Structure formats: structure tokens, C-alpha cells
Amino acid sequence: MILQRYYLGCLSHASYLVADETSKVAAVVDPQRDIDEYVRDAEKLGVEIRYVLLTHFHADFVAGHIELRDRCGAKIYMGSRAQAEFEFTAVKDGDVLEFGQTRLGFLETPGHTPEGLSVLVYDLAASSENPHAVLTGDTLFIGDVGRPDLLASIGVTADELADMLYDSLHEKILTLPDETLVYPAHGAGSMCGKNLSDEAYSTIGEQRKYNYALQPMSREAFKAIVTADQPEAPSYFVHDAIYNRQERSSLDEKLEQSLVPLDLDQVLRRREAGEQLVDVREAIDFAAGHLRGSINVGLAGKYATWCGTVLDKTVPIVVIAEEGAEEEAVMRLGRIGYDNVVGYLERGLESLDQRPDEVRNVRRVTAQAAFEQQQAGEAWTVLDVRNPNEFQQGHLQGAVNIPLGQLARRLEELPQDSRLLVHCQGGYRSSIAISLLQRAGRTDVADLVGGYQAWCASQLPIEGEVAAACTRG
């Protein structure tokens, strides 16, 4: 029995290939939408991907079950409470799927979603009684459990799901042997929980001991703790949860439709028609020069997550990228179901050589320079686009906190008669924020180079819990 983990850092997403060397059969659990890696590895192992399993309808990415079905002929398996447009095999507690010396057993574990499923992986050559591992999807993470508050907009309350989650954990998952390995579908950085570890795996025994949500407590206390202080979910989560239920086109088909070169005049006409231009270069390159009205979301960071936060899935998108990076930019949008890309700017920023009137840049200010300007009485409004918990820990004196995910709808809260000094933790989110501000017509904006980290490294004044602790110390 072979159990192989795949990890997609930009979405903090883990998927798995379970293969049997005797029968030459494999299953893929919670695949990402671009499936080439699974197919290549199956070929190297000499196995055939016959099954694709979804632990639930994911909200933070579009799964690759349709792609594996269409390319490999894989049969789709889901929990019995799942409802979908495509054909699948529904499984319930106690059902098994066996191939060679490998057995996959199923536990229905609702809580993060109603159709939640956990997969028990048995190596029959070692034991037919005790599972080698459990693939917990978004029910149990390393250090956390799945949040139950994502489906309110489609009619399932957080209270109902938290009740289900409590039962799934205590009546099913925690009855497994302590030595059973735990492999979840997400790691640190995912917005499907609030306290996820960056460890690849754990054991039931370790989670029983160290996971805050699995400590002895009443049902009501559990429901209160798992619903409190959850990060704000990007708007695309509901879209993806629905999209994963639908019969749809494959990623390859969408890429073929989207990778269309557009000349500058075509892109300018699309911009004037209200379409979205997303510049995927790094922040420093965007600052040096970019097409007026474009939104900067760099490929080097949490690109898909932030595209899903600041871009409108109903409005066509044009990609602006370094030559050769266009396909990656479009493919990663496809991972979150943003299939509304209509093309990319041919020749990238080189196409603007004869149109300097369309070029804009971003002023960048170092921490020390910004502080000295403040001390000299220059009027700055400091805009901190980090999350509230980051802001509470420590922030620049007098800063205004508007999280990046809320900025577009809260622009009117910013003073119109003051220059804006924008920052985040390190500089990725602030560049997105500045591009949104410029697109909305603000020209009096500057980016704090290196963000809050650089400000602290320069030992400049801060407020918040960290500053208070330093004062007390």
C-alpha cells in the first residue's frame, strides 16, 4: 500500500494518492483541479487511477474530480448526504472499497459540511483491524477542527453544523486507535479553520492530547469555541462550494478558451467596458510601472486566495504577466473556479512603450523616511490592511485598520484630504490595496516598504498588545 501526500502551498491544500502495488489500482482523495501530477505519478508507479474521493464539497478550491473522471475514467465517491449534478457512488458508515492489499473504509463525519466524509486507509498486509491512517478532510485538522460557519448563506446554520461536528469527532474519529495517523485536507494558512498547524500529519493520540477543540468540554462549550474568532472567509467560498456540486467543463477546456493574446487596444477597450485587469507581477515591479486601472495580485504570494477576495467572478478578467507566466496565472485562477478569464495582454508591459500616458507607478517609502516625515509634521493617514487580530497585536500609532478583504466596500471611511501611507505585514497585501485605491481614483497613496515588519525592525514606535507587553516588561 502506498500513501502519497501532495501539498499546494498557495491554497494550503493537501491531497492524497492511495495506491496498491499488487492490484495496480489507485484512488485520489480531494484532488486539486490541475491533475497532471497525480497522472504522472500513477504512470511512474505503474498503477491506474480508478477512483476519486471527495471528503466534502470544498469551498476554498475547485476539486479535480471532473478532470480525473474525464481523463482517467475514475469513478467518483462521496458521502451519502452529498447532492450533485454529476454521477457518483454514495457511501455511508461501514462501507468499504478494496483493491489488492488496500482497503478504504468510510466514516460519515458531517460538521464542516453536512456531507463530510473521512476515509480510513488500511494496509491489509499489516492489519485488517486497525487503520494505518485516516484522511479527515476538513473535519479534523492538525491543531484544529473544521469551521462550521461557512454555509449560512445556503441554508445551513453554524449551530447545526457545530452540533454535527461535535458528534463526528467524539462518536467516530476519537474512537480510532491512538496510533492512527491523521492526514487532513489543509494546513496552516487555510481559512477553513483558525489554528491549523503546518505539520503534514499527526496521530489520533497526539490530537486527543494537544488539539484545543478536542479537550474535555461540554457540547455547548465546544460549539462556542469553534465558532469564535474565525477569519473572514473570501467571497468566492460560496461560489466554489456550489461549483463543486455541478457538472462543468474541465480545466483544460477552460485554459484553451482563456489563453487568448490581446493587443493593447483590445485591453484598453475591455477596461473601459468595466472588465478587470489583474497584474500578477511582484509588488516592486508593479510599483515601477503598470497599466492604469490594473489590480496587482502577485503570483509569488497567496495569489488564488486574494484573487478570489478582490476580483469579481462575474466580470471578465484580463491577465497582465511577465512573458511566459500567463498560463500559470490563468490556471491558478481556474483552481478557484474563476473561469472568466478572456485573455492576456500580449507582450505584457512592453506593449506600453509607446503609451506613457497609460502608465502609472506607486510611491514607496521606507519606514525610517515615513517616521521622519511624520515627525516633521507632514500629514499622513496610515492605513493598515491587515486582519484585526494582527492589528490588535501591534500597529503604527494612529493607524486606521481596514482589512484588505473589506477595503473596496469601505473606501468612503478614508479621509479625502490626506495622503495615505498603506501597509500590511510584509508588503504583499499593501500592493493589492494600493492598486484598488488607485483604481478607485486615489492618487495620494504610498506603500510602506517592508510593511509592519520593517517598521518594527527599525525599532520605531508602535501601539497594541506587543507594545504594552514591552512597556510592562
Notes on the structure:
The protein has 473 residues and is α/β, with parallel strands linked by helices. It has three domains: 2-240, Metallo-beta-lactamase, Chain A (4-Layer Sandwich), CATH 3.60.15; 249-360, Rhodanese-like domain (Oxidized Rhodanese, domain 1), CATH 3.40.250.10; 363-472, Oxidized Rhodanese, domain 1, CATH 3.40.250. It has a six-stranded mixed sheet with strand order 1-2-3-4-5-6. A six-stranded mixed sheet has the order 7-8-9-10-11-12. α3 crosses α5 (219-227) and α7 packs across α11 (326-334). The protein is globular, with a radius of gyration of 24 Å.
Using brief descriptors, characterize the structure shown.
single chain, 473 residues, alpha/beta, Metallo-beta-lactamase, Chain A, Oxidized Rhodanese, domain 1, 6-stranded mixed β-sheet, 17 helices, 30% helix
- In the CATH scheme, what's the topology name of the largest domain? Metallo-beta-lactamase, Chain A
Strand neighbour order, sheet with most strands: 1-2-3-4-5-6
Please count the helical segments.
17
What is the terminal separation in angstroms?
A: 54 Å
Question: Which blocks of ≥5 consecutive residues have pLDDT under 50?
Answer: 469-473
Radius of gyration: 24 Å
Number of domains: 3
